[in-house]
Amino acid sequence: MSNASLSPAPKAGVPIWQKAIFNVLKHGGTKQIAYVPDAGHSHVIECAIADPDIEDVVLTTEEEGVAVVSGAWLGGQRAVLLMQSSGVGNCVNMFSLLQAADFPFFTIVTMRGEYAEFNPWQGPMGKATQGALELMGIHVLRVSDPDQAEEIVSAGFYAAFEAGEKVAVLLGQNLIGRKKWERN
């Protein structure tokens, strides 16, 4: 199988690091990707939707994703949870499932409340995201440089699924770029 068959045809303007993240998940045997729609994860979401070997699972709230990826593991599949930093706050109670049952866990979190944030509601959870994850026993890695995205996501993915760790990779808001409030 060639690498070209791993993801849909490249879209113009999609950064290489976003393509690399999907390829890490695909090469790693991910069978389910659970998410609440988020612009920062749009490329991975679109690739998951287009890939017949990956089930895309749209969530109504992020804590459902903890149960989805845990259930996938019990069913013999690797699953990844995509969420925004504000969603981490929704998951804190559910993270206890990961500790009690000792499931491996892998999530990729797009950060808000950092670089050029326009929405004051995003600030508090953005500042607390890493600490909340660490308090719940989840190892945190951070990507701030696009050239490191593939390596850091790959390292976290394999720590989760080969070593049984609980890992979150935070994608810095500067990586995603400025979000702007658009008025119609």
CATH homolog superfamily: Thiamin diphosphate (ThDP)-binding fold, Pyr/PP domains
Total number of strands: 6
> Uncertain spans, ≥5 residues at pLDDT below 50?
1-10
Could you say how many structural domains there are in total? 1
Radius of gyration from the CA trace?
15 Å
Helix content: 40-55%
CATH architecture, please? 3-Layer(aba) Sandwich
CATH class descriptor:
Alpha Beta
Total number of helices: 8
Biggest sheet overview: 6 strands, parallel
| CATH topology heading | Rossmann fold
Descriptive overview:
By secondary structure, the chain is of the alpha/beta class. 42% of the residues lie in helices and 18% in strands. It has eight helices and six strands. The protein has a six-stranded parallel β-sheet, sandwiched between helices. The chain starts with 15 loop residues before the first helix and ends in an 8-residue tail after the last helix. 40% of the residues are buried.
Topology:
Elements lengths: L15 H12 L2 E6 L6 H9 L4 E4 L3 H13 L3 E7 H7 L3 H7 L3 E6 L12 H13 L3 E5 L5 H13 L4 E6 L1 H4 L8
Parallel strand pairs: 1-2, 1-3, 3-4, 4-6, 5-6
Please provide a brief summary of the model.
With 184 residues, the chain is an alpha/beta fold. It contains 8 helices and 6 strands, in the order αβαβαβααβαβαβα.
